[in-house]
Design brief:
Elements: E1 2-10, H1 17-25, E2 32-38, H2 45-55, E3 59-64, H3 70-80, E4 83-88, E5 94-95, H4 99-112, E6 118-125, E7 141-144, H5 146-151, E8 159-163, H6 164-167, H7 184-191, E9 195-205, H8 212-215, H9 225-238, H10 247-263, H11 268-275, H12 278-302
Helix pairs in contact: 7-9, 9-10, 9-12, 10-12
Length: 303
Amino acid sequence: MFTFSIFTPTYNRKHTLHRAYNTLCNQTYKDFEWIIIDDGSIDGTQDLVSLWIKENKFKISYYYQTNQGKHIAYNHYSKYANGKYFISIDSDDAAKDNWLERNLFHLNQLEIEGKNNFWGIYCLAEDQNGNLIGNKFKKDILDGNWVEIMLDNMQGDKGYSIKMDVFKEFPFPEDVKNVYLPESYFFHAMSSKYNVRCVNERLIVPWVDEREDHLSNELLKRRNLKGLSYGCLGFLKYSMRYFFKFPKEYIIKSIYYVNISFLIKKKFTSQIKEIESFWGIVLWFFSIPAGYILSVFKQKKYD
């Protein structure tokens, strides 16, 4: 068993994947495997990865899926991962040389302190020019629930490592494919049972100038609406205990969930079954009028 099973989903990123590879070559901690899930690339990604596998600097496993989406790639990764911890690096990003070493240090601290109800570590990110992305946590070491921390003015990309047994406990839904499904849904699910330790250390390096075209146009397409609804569903299904602390955010998410449900013609019974949570259903019910009105205006955009 490896300490880390590093996950990289990719789609036509042959020209940037070397950043992740070079990052792994330079890591100060070496006990890891790299699992690449290719979501249908046609740019020669497989040939490039084959060359790296022949170099044999560390274990690389490459798997191909046909345009099913990043969230499905997570589930495929879960089948092949042999590490104690999940950690990921995107196909166009990099990380600090001590990225794994520092994550392991903090993960070990959780074990030493007996914090078995924690899913893992959340860390800061900086761009390729050394600028902090988003903001710092309120304390250098901040323990708490991800949902509460996120809603309390957390901004920008963050890195994370997760205990593998916890990661595998919460597979992504597979009823939608080849769409963008927000990772926040997964974090809501995971945070319904576990807490997180946040650390003010810059460990990942997203290349921000090349990310604008990834999703901004895709998010507006009608086929992505069902995936996007999961980003709102996470609040209603898993995290209603924070409603009274952040009512505005929950009301907005509930209205958008109803709005999307009207646009994709999802039945009320299906929405209720999907939400499950009693208080989530209550909030959903009172959001129906506003959600419907919003969908009437939005419908013209998608016709």
